[in-house]
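User: Predict Manganese/zinc/iron transport system permease protein's structure from this.
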Amino acid sequence: MSDLAAGVWDTAAVATGVLAELPSLAQVWGNHTYRMVVLGTTTIGLVAGALGSFAYLRRQSLISDVISHAALPGTLVVFLAAVALGLDGRNMGGLIAGAIVVGTLAVLAANAIERLTVLRIDAAMAIVLATFFGVGMLLMRIVTNGDFPGKGGIQDYLFGNASTITRADLATSLTVGGVALAIMLVYWREFALRTFDPDLAATLGMRTRLVDTLMFTTIVIATVIGVKAVGLVLMVAFVVTPPAAARQWTQSLPAMVALAGAIGAVGSALGAYLSIALGTVPTGPVIVLTLFAILLLSLLASPRRSVLLRAARRRRARRALQAELTREVRAHEARAQRVAEQRVPEQRVPEQRVPEQGAQP
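Assistant:
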């Protein structure tokens, strides 16, 4: 047996041993903490994937990054207000409400800057993101240095901690996410028209600002419900990656939204399971890598938009063009040769010598 075959055999044996040691789905489901992690992240992936499709199609995918960073001061303001009033500052519903309000204000601010100034939308989003995140970091320092009850773990909103998802957190995410999906279904026609043809929507008399506010509010909800579990730094991947993968396989908006939600849910559940199985890795980054693997597979293997198929089509088109040019050149050369062969040679006129004077003619 060659060294290469022995190495492959050893690698397969190690992989088989690792797979044999992974916990079964029944073991994961039987543990309350693991069950909350899987259900919580699946809910986040489903809602963020479905609603993120509109941000993706409107070419404002990074708006989720603005929202997630703006969610930090929103949650901290609510925390400080609740503590000042003697209430529970860690209440998930209150924190999400604060994040939604401030996140919506951040989105409206970015669009207002683009509409009222000469700045482009990417510059406006960068300015709003930095400003709101700066306020959030200032409030985070105040909370960290202050003597506030229940402040432990508040820094998890920066990087997320899926293991802290409780049954109440899951119920809140299901309720808020369900409301956002219901708004999307009720205003489906307005959302679709505003996404694909905003000028026609305005011409038909549609209240475009109201539709935009509703649409971005649902995207805000989809973003902020995952901040505690995933963290504001990685939440943008939940909103952007599933729609980008779904777009490679679909040709209509309903199919894309449905598939993006499914990819977000399945990718989040698989990533959460792998994180639990591996034991020593955080859940959020593993889910992000799982979603990236799905996106990479979609870019390579989708039937109409595959990178490999498009490269093969371009190569075939280039070869066909080269063959056509070669035939044209050869035909031109053949025509030129026939013309040269059919050309009549010019008759030479004999020179007439002038007789010299005195010479006999």
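The first helix runs from residue 3 to 21.
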